[in-house]
Amino acid sequence: MRRRSLVLGPFLAALAILGLVSGFIVQSFEGLLMQFTVLAAFMPMLADTGGNTGSQSATLVVRALALKEITTKDILCILTREFQISLLLAVLLGLIAFLRVIYLGGGSTIPDSYSLIRIGFAISLALGLQVVTSTLVGALLPLGAAKLKLDPAVVASPALTTIVDITGLLIYFITARLLLRV
Hints:
mainly alpha, Tetracycline Repressor, domain 2, 7 helices, 84% helix, 0% strand
């Protein structure tokens, strides 16, 4: 137990430092957020959804590894299954986000030349992409840890949080910028 704590400390410190990247990403898209304040309202949903789908995927893979139901050699089968599930979730959760923007986003400040439908599509597409990537990252991290002879349960969760935050923000802002053409 003591050995694990000695190794885990520097690992968590490195992830905390890497987590500063999230703040830099938000700061670099500050102009987009100022122009479309409605985007800020959906950042928590994006982070939560990415974290939840990634954690669920990681938990299932860690459990299957522990029960010897899978090995690292099953990676293609696992990723294919997780991808299929994540697509279904992406459609469902993207639709929920779209409807949320359309019906409850009317009070937000948006430029005159934009519609809530266009903004809702950008947000829902970004959320869907986040669900897919988070699910795949959630499956890959414990498999990678197992391949490197590390404890998948210890490595997957902290690394997943940092990676999903960073990739989620990048996906969100880049998708919004491209679809809103700003």
